[in-house]
Design a protein that fits this description.
Blueprint: H1 3-21, H2 28-36, E1 39-42, E2 47-51, E3 54-57
Antiparallel strand pairs: 1-2, 2-3
Helix pairs in contact: 1-2
Length: 73
């Protein structure tokens, strides 16, 4: 698993949990409200925070570089 896979897994877990908690499944506004209402959510070792004023989930940043041959460094 590389960093892109990990980021995708975390995003999928957050989205799945927000969908599970949504008051109106399938409604975009209800899903957004559900994401904002997640608060602190542990995805299984990586914690994200969402709220009315916190819409980025995490402030963690890792820089990487993709080489010409497609390898991540």
């Amino acid at each position: 698993m590389n960093s892109a896979h990990l980021e995708s897994c975390i995003g999928a877990k957050v989205l799945t949990e927000a969908m599970r908690r949504s008051k109106k499944p399938g409604d975009a506004k209800a899903l957004l409200a559900s994401i904002k209402g997640l608060g602190t959510y542990d995805t299984g070792g990586f914690t994200v925070n969402y709220g009315a004023d916190q819409q980025h989930g995490s402030k963690y940043v890792e820089l990487g570089m993709v080489t010409r041959d497609g390898k991540l460094r």
